[in-house]
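User: I'm curious whether this sequence folds into something compact or stays loose and floppy. Could you predict its structure so I can see for myself?
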Amino acid sequence: MSIELSDLANAMRRGDLIPYLGPGVLAPVVERETGVSMPADSDSLILAMNKGRPMSKRLMWEFPRAAMDVELKRGRSAVNRFLDHTYGQRQWTRAPLHDWLAKLAPHYVIDINRDTQLQDSYADRPHTLIRGISRIAGTDYRFRIHAYDGDRYQEIDQDQVDPAAPILFKPLGSPRPDATYIASDADFVDYLTELMGGFGLPRFLKEYRVGRQYLFLGLRLTRDTERMVLSDVIYAAGEPAGWALIPEPTDKERRYCEKKDIQLVEADIDDLLAADGFTANDSATAEAVAGAAEAGC
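Assistant: Here's the prediction. I'll summarize afterward.
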């Protein structure tokens, strides 16, 4: 079934599609001071964590495997410090897709990146933030929920969630309001086990997702870990489950999308934004406004 990019953009605008964000949405982002690209995908994260040096071929296969190696040698805190520094302490430019989403303000967004740009997009409005946790005692669940009132976050129980507030779901965590991450193999084993068992999502979200359709953006479906997260997060999706924008998809991606009833669209994020009339000038304006706000203007 073919579909036009403008139709997907309009469906997003109407709230008929849930955006599911992968590392590719951050590809245009660079550090303000140095111009260095933000590490977001598996390879760039491994290189950044290892101070620009490649690790062994076995460890370069996937970031969780490399993070597990670092954790075993230097402790879990070493991985967390790296992620804190990368996403919580450095200043980055804005991704055009995040500026577009800030204008659309979808009710529910899934973001498997660990940065704060999605949260920044909703900084001017109340919302509910859900983040994955792992290997934490004293709880039956593998998530934490924070309510944002337009000024600050406060941790709440799932029964206290405002159903009218937008939902930002970051399964792999973020540094704000306090750091929590799913990063190493051990993290993923624990998190995915509980996600499959029904303890990785709050009740209201499991009810809300039934029959929904998704738009997968910036997500290459070649990594087993990311595919397992996707499979459990979109459980009970509609028919089709959604559409994935993947330029030049591999045979592996084609087979996976067919298996999951996801329609492939051989295009990229820039094509989608252009189809909706969102230009570089729009993003530049949003960037300038964000910069002025940071400067206290």
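Summary: The first strand starts at residue 17 and ends at 21. The longest helix spans residues 280-294.
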